[in-house]
Amino acid sequence: MTDFAAWSRAIQTRAENVLAALLPDTGIAPEKLHAAMRYVCLGGGKRVRPMLAYAAGEAVGGDPTRIDFAAAAVELIHVYSLTHDDLPCMDDDDLRRGKPTCHVAYDEATALLVGDALQSLAFEALAHPAAATAADVQVEMLRLLARASGSRGMAGGQAVDLAATGRALDLAELEFMHIHKTGALIQAAVLLGALAGGALETTTRERLERYARCIGLAFQVMDDVLDAETDTATLGKTAGKDAAQGKATYLTLMNVKEARAYAHELLNDALEAIQPFGAAGQRLAEIARFIVERSY
Description:
By secondary structure, this protein is mainly alpha-helical. It has one domain (4-293): Farnesyl Diphosphate Synthase, CATH 1.10.600.10. It is built from 14 helices and 2 strands; from the N terminus they run ααααββαααααααααα. Strands 1-2 form a two-stranded antiparallel sheet. Helix 3 (48-59) runs antiparallel to helix 4 (64-85) and helix 9 (171-195) packs across helix 10 (202-229). The relative contact order is 0.13.
């Protein structure tokens, strides 16, 4: 089995190629919108969510060619959310993935439409006949992604985040926000990748959900640490922005040492959840460690 670095590079390349094939060509009208969609989706990003989809599919013996659609769908939703989050009416950021944000490179109206179009394209990808083994499983996958993206998932978490700006949150409130804003889509990536291989037994699904919940929180803990400790060039986005905007983060509740320790607690819980998968869950374990040990 290849090492994690080689595997992750291969998955990033695969995800890039799948996205490039799904996204409309820049020569198709409306050309500006399609160029902007490709601008925000291609040539950057860690591709953590596609990696999770492929790793979860591998854990249950799924076919990677089916997982392609799930991986692309969840990444398209993720990129749409970033494009909208960066708008002046949201987080008002000028840098994403090491390059100007969509509304800076193009304009605000185009950025808004890019997010709308990417969201639609995600569901189009997941509805592809080759995306699932059976119609009932595919309907479940579509429902799962819709819920993870909406008011009881990512969009709801962003609403809580905006409402909490400048206000102190306790740990339960902070984690409620992040379970929705970040965790819902991470859990969707894991479950969609696994469901691409077919219906899941209850115990298998519960293990994957527990794993995803833990790494979703760990991801946000480390994002908060890196936002405080790492420079803009390394992050590829504006460092220190959360503190400057008065946003609630883990570092408003604990110091860096405590936050890193908490991330490792979540890592251990995630690894325990997938232990029954044995060698088939190796990639899931490696991604969990990467999330906690990353420097960007």
